[in-house]
Amino acid sequence: MTTSSTRYDFLDWLRVLAIFVLLFFHTGMIFVGWGWHIENAQVIESLRLPMDIAHRLRMPLLFVIAGAGMWFALGSRTAMQILRERTWRLLLPLLFGMFLIVPPQIYFERLFRGEWQGDYASFFIERVLQFHLYPQGDFSWHHLWFIAYLYVYVMLLLPLLATWRRSCWTLQPGPWLYLLGLPLAINEALLKPLFPESHNLVRDWYIFDHYLLLTLYGFALASMPGVWDWFAKWRHRSFAIGMGIFALAMALFEFGVIRRDTPADAIVANVFTWCWLMVFLGYGRQHLSFSNGLLRWARDASYPVYILHQTLIVAIGYYVIQASWGPWGKYATVLITTMAGCFGLYEAVVRRFASTRVIFGLKGKDLSGTQTVRVTKAEPSSLA
User: What is the pTM of this model?
Assistant: First the structure.
């Protein structure tokens, strides 16, 4: 048995790693020709498969961890306390981001597509403050959709989850957990053709239900006694199943047995997603159940980095793609400068001032630099 001080550190590690992968993923979006905000003229073909895999795994893992965080939070706080805290840590950064972080992305996109020629101040006043929704207009939450959806899930699920937390009813981990990929598959097969992915919240039922289920899965997993150790015990089996599904899927796509955006694709993709989430949880529990200085720093830094990263990628990428370098050189330049910018802004600005800590969803800090809000060590520091 591990001690309470390290018991759920692996969830923090997994969350930090998932957000770190986003830096690589969103930089890659410039170079794969998938119709992103800005695009390099020359694509990198070898990026498409790892990008496709990352797309299926990065956000699901974050929502599962967020759901687990709700279980732990309800163990020490009331539902109203959690709602107030999540409002400060989710809704406030979302509103701040929609007015100050996201508009530069839209500005550079309009410049890239020849839809604006003026300066940023004029763009903000004449276009953003019209509050016409993107893509027709210039007001959006862009990558901050994750925060918006998470806050809606908190409001919708909190009464149910609080009742669940108080009940004596518990599930036991077992092989049945592998079947949880099937509801995800059914949801995508039925709803994706009718409601394609849009992140606009009101007409996004496939994605809304997909991540709602994953949030509930995270809460349910955290409620099961011994579940994390069960994942660790059977991690090699999960890995073998995951590799088998991957190999089978690649063969079926290669020979044309399965085509993209079909019900069969939805089944294979979601079974793949869920199995690999089990792999991450199992190996994470086994090998990442520890804390150190890097984790303590990254735990706080990851949320501001998430908020900042896409704006820096688009702004830097806009200028880099105009150079005559090869695509890999451009990719590395955007990635490295974005990392430096995110980490530098966090260290020099975000964490140093009470006002910036609040608007970036961080907890309070006194003048000596000590955290004023103490987090229970058995609870992972998740975004929900």
Answer: 0.93
